[in-house]
Amino acid sequence: MTADQLSSGAGELERRYLSGTFAELCRIESPSGSERGCAERVIAELRALEVQVHEDDAAALTGSDCGNLHARVPAGGAPPAHDPAGHERPSLLLCAHLDTVPLQAPIEPVLVDGYWENANAGILGADNKAAVAVLLALARHVRRAGAPVDLELLFTVGEETALAGARVFDASRLSSEFGYVFDHPSPIGEVIVRSPSHFRIEVTFHGLAAHAGIRPEDGRSAILAAARAIASMPHGRLDDETTVNVGTISGGSAMNVVPELCTLVAEVRGVDDERAQAVVAEVVDRVHEAANLPDCDCDVDVSVEQSFSGYRLPPSTPAVKVAESALRARGYEPLRISSGGASDANALLAQGIQIVNLANGTERNHEPGERVSVAALEEMLDVALTLLDEAAALSR
Predict the structure, then answer these.
(1) What is the pTM of this model?
(2) Structural domain of 102
(3) Interior CA angle at 262 toward 259 and 266, to 5°?
């Protein structure tokens, strides 16, 4: 099969396989930490294609019940890694994550007006099983019809928990110089060239317990201190590239006890590291100011952790150029965008692997009502096929 034939798109058989595989994967519950069932389905599929799969030790490092999966599908199905002239054959990495956010309801995929949805009031799991299904369909295509480059596949765990699996993956195992994740819920054609750094801030206020009805003046309310801190912090979108959110708060022991402890967890995201760090410092200052107010007078412990680093990719980056060429070949005008979310691209880029996150056409991720159209699934596969062609053209 020629490159032109390959990039013309997947066949009808592969399209039916793609939709069926996607629905099957969605039915396998795999919230972060419980990815084993989904991983076993992926392993079984790849082994049926006579593709070897390596599972790393990410389970022990992340608390998941399985590790990251890494596989190579040789171009043309042939085992040698060099072409007849002795040149090293190029390789392209595609990555997807096996986990989902927590489920609000059982997942039963149904087709409604051309869209896959959950029949129940909860997520569908298209984030990121749409990409997992596409990668499996692509591997099936390459084993049957060949490809102009070797295909390298990475399936990670714990992406929804601060990219846990990708952060501990040993990127030295990869032979590809660049690659892609399909992990942004926006129209196909968008190329995510900017993504934020993420800072996690955990704060615990230590007050003093007292009977709330008999001697409240003897107590010091940790919840009051937390409330004052939250009220004084910046919140929401601060500018185009910076956000702040207080995600959880917990404390107290009973209605009639002045609360001795209260803990809150907040996040700061920012594409500009210096700006993000300044916002983190402001949040921490507000915490200490609230703790020291006369009517609070609490001790406070503050922990700040950078979960992952952000990035900016210039248009001249080979991975960006290949992506945009592939999208144009499929009839899209590429649109470079900045995202407030992160993906495994952040973690792999931090290890020196050039990765671009591409929009996958899914909608309403992390929400009841999450959905993806059959057309978007099929177009994702066609874009992936075309990426193989364009990666080969770049190496010539």
Answers:
(1) 0.88
(2) 3-195+310-395
(3) 155
